[in-house]
Amino acid sequence: MPRTQEQINERQRELRKINGNVHTKKYERTKKGFLMRKYHHMLGRINGEEWYAGVHLWAGKEILSKDDFYNWSMNNPDFHRLFKEWEDSGYERNLCPSVDRLDSKLGYLIDNMEFVTFLENATRGSRSRWAKQ
Asked: Which pTM does this prediction carry?
């Protein structure tokens, strides 16, 4: 008897718990897997689905298509440089490539994005929050 999609999804969740998500974590450390996860999080912020405390900073803004994001990223020398530095560091969180929006009033659009490290993006966000107070 064929299984439903929900049964398949539940089985996958069980296997991930058992093996600690090793396959998912390994895939997310490839460029393709990394960009898949990055876009998923960007889309979640825009849709207001993520648990981020600053959901008001992203919700309802524009976002480029997944294909446009992948193409932009894979043709972006900063992405490749930062990804290599992140790999070479042993995947240190602060060196992880991060997409920063240049103008926080706008969404994720090609002319409004750049790749920086996670630490740089977090620092910029902190500075802009303190400047508004």
From this structure: 0.74
Q: Residue 94: how many CA atoms within 13 Å on its side-chain side?
A: 3
What is the three-class DSSP state of 67?
helix
Contacts of 85 (CB under 8 A, 6+ apart): 95
Yes or no: say if 31 and 70 are a contact pair by the CB < 8 Å rule. no
Tens digit of pLDDT for each residue in 105-116? 999 999 999 999
Place of tokens 């648990």: 51
Q: What is the CA angle 54-59-64, rounded to 5?
A: 120
Which structural domains are found in the chain, ordered by start?
5-132 (3.30.40)
Residue 129 tokens, joined: 């929050």
